[in-house]
Structures are given as C-alpha cells and as structure tokens.
Amino acid sequence: MRPGPHAAAVAALTLAVAAACWPAPADAAPAEKRCSTAGRTLAVVGPKARPESRVWRSRGVTYGCTVLPSGRARTSVLTRVPTGLVRLDGETVAWTTPRGTGDARTDRVSLFDLRWPSRELRAVPAVPATAPGVPRRSARVDALAVASGGDVAWVADGTTVVVGATPDPQAEFTLQGADGTGTPLYRDGSVAVAAVHPADPAVAERLRTSLAIGVVPGDPGDSDGCLYAFASAFRWDAGAGVVEARMRGQRATFGGGCS
Q1: DSSP 203-232
Q2: Residue 17: enclosing H or E segment and its boundaries?
Q3: What is the pLDDT of residues 5-42, one digit of tens each?
Q4: With 0-12 CB in 10 A as exposed, 13-18 as middle and 19+ as buried, what is 68?
Q5: For the chain, which ranges sit under pLDDT 50?
Q6: Within 13 Å of residue 176, how many CA atoms lie on the same side as its CB?
C-alpha cells in the first residue's frame, strides 16, 4: 500500500529535522568562509581544497580571494584581461599584463592587497622614471616577486631591477652600499628603479633566479595603534655578489578595530 500524502509529508519533515540536527562534517564550512576552488588556479597559499588565499581565472576573469582574520573570505575581481606572470604571498598578489606580441611585447605590473581592495598599483610601466622629467619606459618583465604586506619587485628587459609597494606616501627607498650606508632612490609614485645592469644573457638569468624579498635583519617593525613601521629588503645577484635595496615606511594594521 502506498503511503498517503500526510504520511509522506511527515516522513520528509522527519528527515529534514534529522539533517538539521546531525553534526556537519568538519570541512563543511559556510561558503562565505571559504575561497572558491572553481576555475583554473594561477596561484594558491595553503591546501588547494581549502586555500588561505587563491588566484584563479574563470570565463575570462581573474579573481583573487583571501580568508580574513574574522574567518570570512573576501573575493575581488583582479582583471578582465589576460595575465602573464602571477605571484601570490599571503594576502598580496602581483601580476603582469602583456601588451603586444613577439619581440614587440611589453608588460605592465599590478599589485593588489586582497584584504584592502583600495591598496593597489594598477598597470605600472615596467621601467619607472629615474629622475624628474625622465619618462617611464615600456619593457618586458622577466621575473616577478611579491611579499605579504604589499611588497613587489621585478626584473625588466633582463637588466633593470625595480622595487615597490602598495601606496605609502612616507615610504623611502635606498640602495645599500658595502659599508652599510643607504643611497636614496628616486621614487616614481610607489616604485623605484633600484639598479640597471649590463645587457647580458648570463646576467639576465642570474637576476631572474635570484630576485627575492625579505625583511631587514633585526628590524621587526614598530607598532603604534593602527599603524606599524616596517623595513623590507629586496635582494638580487647579477654575478658579483648579493645586492640589497631597502624600503622603510608605515602600514595600517588589519583587524582589531583598525580595518
């Protein structure tokens, strides 16, 4: 005998109540607390099944996501045009945007803080100005590095090392000498040309493989309320030993009532 409509409704209600009361699996977090795993992954921090931060491309759009200290995920549209190099560290992502093709191809560089959508650099020319009145120059980006907190560096045309960060009007760039003194670098907005090396395939390869970003040893930064002072180190080796540029400035603290 088939159950009547009333019996079927009671059975359905019983199943619904049981499902609501039964504990969910540990990894069944609400959707807003997880970064998407759809699309083609371009860069990821953490497990691919449950990333802490992720950059991916889907249907012609590049997205970035990070899980905030509150536990919720924040997703942003990064760009709707094709990307070249993509680098992700913590909540900071950088990418290049190719223009032209073949030998005429050049790149623009973008930097984005996934926690703070307003903290970004958009489509910066590969070679910034090196002095007042000196124009920026288009070039190809051979290597790209990024560090959590908003630092970026790249090598243009196999010769030029550029360093930068998310906008900070107080940031100061210096090139460190062998005696430990720093020579100020000209700032073009939030980026600066740190060095120009001879055009040589061997030099270009060393620059490409050695470019790295870290912190200044023994300088953890000082915090004052919702701002903290920091000192970043950009290092590379063109064949004659490691060279270092530094950047000092202030950044806002995320969370704790400061966001």
Answers
A1: HHHHHHHH-EEEE-TT----EETTEEEEEE
A2: helix 5-21
A3: 444 443 443 433 333 333 332 333 344 678 999 999 99
A4: middle
A5: 1-31
A6: 18
Q: Using alpha carbons, select from 147, 162, 160 the residue that is nearest to residue 230.
A: 147
Is 0.90 topped by the overall pTM? no
Which segments within 33-177 are labelled E, that is strand?
Answer: 40-45, 53-58, 61-67, 73-79, 86-89, 92-99, 106-113, 120-125, 141-147, 151-156, 160-165, 172-176
Which residue in the block uniquely carries the two structure tokens 């190099």?
Answer: 85
Sheet of 106-113, strand order = 86-89, 92-99, 106-113, 120-125
What are the extents of the domains in the chain?
A: 29-80
By the 10 Å C-beta count (0-12 exposed, 13-18 middle, 19+ buried), 163 is classed as buried
pLDDT of residue 258: 59
Structure tokens given for 116 = 């703070």
- Specify the amino acid at residue 157: D
Question: Distance between CA atoms of 123 and 113, rounded to whole angstroms?
Answer: 15
CA triple 250-125-96, angle to 5 deg: 85
d(CA 73, CA 53): 9
CA angle 28, 33, 37 (to 5 degrees): 75
Q: Rg of the chain's alpha carbons, rounded to an integer?
A: 24
CA distance 176 to 173: 10
